[in-house]
């Protein structure tokens, strides 16, 4: 069975203390940290440049992933890899030549993932599955944390899961947006094994460690992976 991974978004974190916030997330038992990179063009918000991520990098050993919600990601790819991101998530909608962009991620020595906005068909993944180690099905429209989970994305998660199973490749399926104790089971049951959460982790009154552990337990209880070969 695929490992269920909990990956926090740092969007709700205290931006004046990002190093300490990353340490707290690592101590809470997260599997990776997701940096929501936004350029104010692809999405109506602006967040982390590579230098911010590079400044936090030495404080923790947990892997980083850069979720590039940017126009024309190609020129930014090397900057985020150099900043210390082991994973680069590229939106299908953000580049004219997706196959080339994803190939460049691997050429830079990072692990590539494909991100799909809610209105983008799972079919967009079909001809690039050989280039990625993960497919992200967005469960909100990108740009902001704290939005409502779009449950109608669950059939698309299952569609991607079936495509991945048929490919015979080990590819993780990630969901991002509105993931919480009340929505995580639906996403895991649809086939997602990597759960990104921001606001749900930070609003848990029992703290980050409880939030991470609770989300993981709920996901493990509900997860339906690819049929055993
Ligand atoms: C949207 C962001 C958010 C964030 C998670 O662009 O990518 O989905 O990571 O936010 P929550 O968990 O608060 O919905």
Brief summary of the model shown:
With 229 residues, the chain is α/β, with parallel strands linked by helices. It contains 8 helices and 8 strands; from the N terminus they run βαβαβαβαββαβαβαα. It has one domain (5-228): Alpha-Beta Barrel (TIM Barrel).
Folded structure, characterized:
With about 230 residues, this protein is of the alpha/beta class. It has a single domain (about 5-229), classed as TIM Barrel (Alpha-Beta Barrel), CATH 3.20.20. Helices cover about 30% and strands about 20% of the residues. The protein contains 8 helices and 8 strands, in the order E-H-E-H-E-H-E-H-E-E-H-E-H-E-H-H. It has helices at about 20-25, 50-55, 75-80, 100-105, 155-165, 185-190, 200, 210-220; strands spanning about 5-10, 35-40, 65-70, 85-90, 110-115, 135-140, 170-175, 195. The chain has an 8-stranded parallel beta sheet with strand order 1-8-7-6-5-4-3-2. Strand 6, helix 5 and strand 7 (about 170-175) form a beta-alpha-beta unit. It starts with a strand and ends in a 7-residue tail after the last helix. D-xylitol-5-phosphate binds near residues 36, 142 and 144. The site of D-xylitol-5-phosphate has 21 residues, from strand 3, strand 8 and helix 7.
């Amino acid at each position: 069975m695929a490992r269920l991974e909990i990956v926090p978004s740092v969007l709700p974190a205290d931006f004046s203390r990002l190093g300490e916030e990353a340490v707290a997330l690592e101590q809470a038992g997260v599997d990776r940290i997701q940096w929501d990179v936004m350029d104010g063009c692809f999405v109506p918000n602006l967040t982390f440049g590579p230098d911010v991520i590079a400044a936090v990098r030495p404080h923790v050993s947990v892997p980083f992933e850069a979720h590039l919600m940017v126009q024309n990601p190609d020129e930014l790819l090397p900057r985020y890899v150099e900043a210390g991101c082991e994973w680069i998530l590229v939106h299908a909608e953000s580049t004219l030549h997706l196959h080339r962009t994803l190939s460049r991620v691997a050429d830079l020595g990072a692990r590539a993932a494909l991100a799909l906005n809610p209105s983008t068909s799972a079919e967009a993944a079909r001809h690039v599955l050989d280039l990625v180690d993960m497919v992200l099905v967005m469960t909100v429209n990108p740009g902001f944390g704290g939005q409502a989970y779009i449950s109608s994305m669950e059939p698309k998660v299952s569609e991607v899961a079936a495509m991945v199973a048929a490919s015979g490749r080990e590819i993780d399926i990630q969901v991002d947006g509105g993931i919480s104790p009340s929505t995580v089971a639906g996403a895991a049951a649809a086939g997602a094994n990597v759960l990104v959460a921001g606001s749900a982790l930070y609003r848990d009154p029992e703290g980050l460690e409880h939030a991470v552990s609770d989300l993981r337990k709920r996901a493990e209880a509900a997860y339906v992976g690819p049929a055993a070969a």
